[in-house]
Specification:
Blueprint: H1 7-22, H2 31-46, H3 51-66, H4 76-92, H5 126-130
Helix pairs in contact: 1-3, 3-4
Length: about 140
Amino acid sequence: MQDQYFTFNMFDAQAWYARDVILDKIQLPELAVRQADEQEWLAEYEKVTNVDGDIDFQAQYIRDLTNVTDYPEFAVEKQGEIFKEWQKDKKVDIMGFREKAYRSTLTNTLAPELPEPWLDILDDSLEHFLNLPFCSKTPKKKVS
């Protein structure tokens, strides 16, 4: 089993593909063709030797699924580059990599940095999160 980097998007793209098969928008090829395709994917995965390769493989698989459906574009390859950067940050500082900010592939917005080290943020309530300095520039309302 490969490590999952794109978890939600991979499973979501698979679901969209399955939906289109069920709705007869995609016709599945004959069993022998599907098995040959599976063997090609397995052979490609055998060539993967590092984390970057894992990420590229998953991005390629997701792109393969989304190319034949109407799955919304989310710049899977750019997201893969962010995952690679995230993995490097994780190697450098296993306790601090969660404090890094990355740019959205959809909006190009840089995520705000945490106001304190993630390990020190012990309150995970919605009220606490909404009162963090980066959540809003308007006065805070009480969350009920």
